[in-house]
């Protein structure tokens, strides 16, 4: 079974086309107009071994907020579509990723219950045209639209680039673990019989 989700979403603020293949090889082609965000999405795909194509046109003359948040919405919708009824997936994933002096932890649950706990104090920064607080907005949009519980904790770090890079890499690795098919699982990983 091919686990792929494709979504097109057009609003007065953004026009986004995205395809996510869960069982990929880490290939990504990403164009959002926000260079640092493109870099983060490529790292997310590479370290999660997802194949990802993103073409986003947004109102960057205002700022990057709508483009980043709406990409999170579309990625979440594509992930939900790709996973379907979530049969056979491991459900939980956790990753610790060091990036030089930075150390980030992402733990998540493909639970169907959207929630984000974001414990990153060093978020207020600007990297290129990317405002650091947009990582939280992206993750919240992803969590809500994919039905994920996501906990992000920064355990160490001073350099903003390293901090956000560690978070996106950890997100990819944790999501890869959670979405992996385990042949021992009958149905879904829940005593309720549904996720």
Automatic annotation (TrEMBL):
Matching SUPFAM superfamilies:
Ribosomal protein S5 domain 2-like (SSF54211)
Tagged with keyword Amino-acid biosynthesis: yes
Xref: InterPro entries? IGPD_sf, ImidazoleglycerolP_deHydtase, ImidazoleglycerP_deHydtase_CS, Ribosomal_Su5_D2-typ_SF
What is this enzyme's catalytic activity, as reactions? D-erythro-1-(imidazol-4-yl)glycerol 3-phosphate = 3-(imidazol-4-yl)-2-oxopropyl phosphate + H2O
CDD domains xref list:
IGPD
Pfam families, per this entry? Answer: IGPD
The EC number(s) this enzyme carries: 4.2.1.19
Query: Which keywords accompany this UniProt record?
Result: Amino-acid biosynthesis, Cytoplasm, Histidine biosynthesis, Lyase
Q: Which domain of life is it from?
A: Bacteria
Places the protein is found:
Cytoplasm
Q: Which GO terms describe its molecular function?
A: imidazoleglycerol-phosphate dehydratase activity
**Recorded family membership:** Belongs to the imidazoleglycerol-phosphate dehydratase family.
Q: Which PANTHER family does this entry report, sorted A to Z?
A: IMIDAZOLEGLYCEROL-PHOSPHATE DEHYDRATASE, IMIDAZOLEGLYCEROL-PHOSPHATE DEHYDRATASE HIS7
Q: What's this protein's name?
A: Imidazoleglycerol-phosphate dehydratase
> Which organism does this sequence originate in?
Anaeroselena agilis
The gene designation is hisB
